[in-house]
Specification:
Elements lengths: L7 H5 L1 H34 L5 H13 L3 H11 L9 H26 L3 H9 L4 H31 L11 H12 L2 H30 L5
Helix pairs in contact: 2-3, 2-5, 2-7, 2-8, 3-5, 4-5, 5-7, 6-7, 7-9, 8-9
């Protein structure tokens, strides 16, 4: 029996898909900003072997990198209430993305910091830069410039991984697609358009991050 394509029911529900895409972008933006801040802290602690932070971040990185994102999400959303910590679906999804990205970016940024030549620190000291100025301009900025493409790719991966947040009823893009498909039963059409939306989001975010990298790290490499 031939399948008859009908995108009309899906297009009629397009506002729900766009709203879900907006939630996905909001989750990604929050997760990226906070996750990268956590990654910088962890990267510095591990690269410079700051005790006891270096050991704490080593355990944290291994725990996150060797467990599925879905399990981390379930642990936060279903596990924490057992300890009396009650959070919403949005908060759980955001926290899971921050923690996940923070672990991966810790290792990426650590590699960037360790790649900065030691001679640059000596040059900073010769120029009478303060420790804060030397860290910001001589270590952190060049280190982030070196690893920015890798960080950008990791942010994209986390954004695409946010699709599993629909499992705890976070109303992101996948949740919207599942809701629409359950009402119109046009699975092929619904998920085809959802796939295209994810593709556009990934390309758009990658372009935005590339532009941001050129703006922030001009001349840093």
């Amino acid at each position: 029996m031939a399948y008859h394509f009908d995108f009309t029911p899906v297009l009629q529900a397009a506002p729900l898909l766009f709203k879900g895409a907006g939630v996905t972008l909001a989750l990604t933006a929050t997760g990226a900003v906070c996750g990268l801040a956590l990654g910088i802290l962890g990267g510095v602690a591990r690269a410079w072997k700051v005790k006891p932070l270096a050991g704490i971040f080593a355990v944290y990185v291994e725990a996150i990198r060797n467990t599925p994102f879905l399990v981390q999400l379930f642990f936060i959303f279903f596990g924490l209430p057992s300890l009396g910590v009650h959070i919403s679906e949005w908060q759980a999804a955001t926290l899971a993305m921050i923690i996940n990205l923070g672990a991966y970016s810790t290792e990426i940024i650590r590699a960037g910091i360790q790649a900065v030549p030691h001679g640059q620190l000596e040059a900073a000291a010769a120029l009478a830069l303060t420790r804060a100025e030397a860290f910001r301009h001589v270590i952190l900025r060049p280190a982030l410039a070196k690893v920015w493409p890798a960080l950008s790719s990791q942010i994209i991966i986390v954004m695409l991984g946010s699709a599993v947040c629909s499992q705890i009823a976070t109303q992101e893009l996948s949740f919207a697609a599942n809701f629409i498909q359950s009402r119109n039963f046009r699975a092929f059409e619904t998920y085809l358009l959802t796939t295209l939306l994810y593709l556009l989001l990934a390309i758009g975010v990658r372009w935005a991050l590339a532009w941001l990298g050129r703006y922030l790290f001009k001349g840093a490499r």
